[in-house]
Amino acid sequence: MQNKIKKIINTYDDLTDQLSDPKIISNPPKFRDIAKQHHDLEPVVQKGREYIKLIEQIVEYRSILDGDDPDLKAIAKEEIDDLLSQQEQQENELKILLLPKDQRDSKNTIIEIRAGTGGEEAALFS
To answer: What is the distance between the alpha carbons of residues 9 and 15, in angstroms, rounded to a whole number?
Structure first.
């Protein structure tokens, strides 16, 4: 999962660089497409960076467990337990964010509201 997140972060960084490129800025359709891709990846990148940071903290605390100090080991074990529960929660959130989007989600809709029974007074509220 980390590799996939890192690829997405690299893509996001590339898109960020492209958004500041004068050639892209002068081409409005291409700029719009890149800006949309950039916007769509933003929540995934934020959660992904949090997830990677969390993994790094877990690795750091596990290295403390290899030390000699029993007090530090106890504190590190508690922290690892907390971080592992956070890791599971963030993995679930990332899986949801990584699900493919439905193409119809970004389409416009028209909703028609009609008055039901009740005559003119009901029509005023619809």
So the answer is: 10
Two structure tokens written together for 63: 């290295």
The Cα 87–Cα 53 span in angstroms is 10
Per-residue tens of pLDDT for the chain, all 126 residues: 889 999 999 999 999 999 999 999 999 999 999 999 999 999 999 999 999 999 999 999 999 888 888 888 899 899 999 999 999 999 999 999 988 888 887 788 888 887 767 677 767 765
Report how far residue 80's alpha carbon sits from residue 84's, in angstroms, rounded to the nearest whole number: 6
Please report, as a single letter, which amino acid is at residue 52. I
* Global pTM value: 0.74
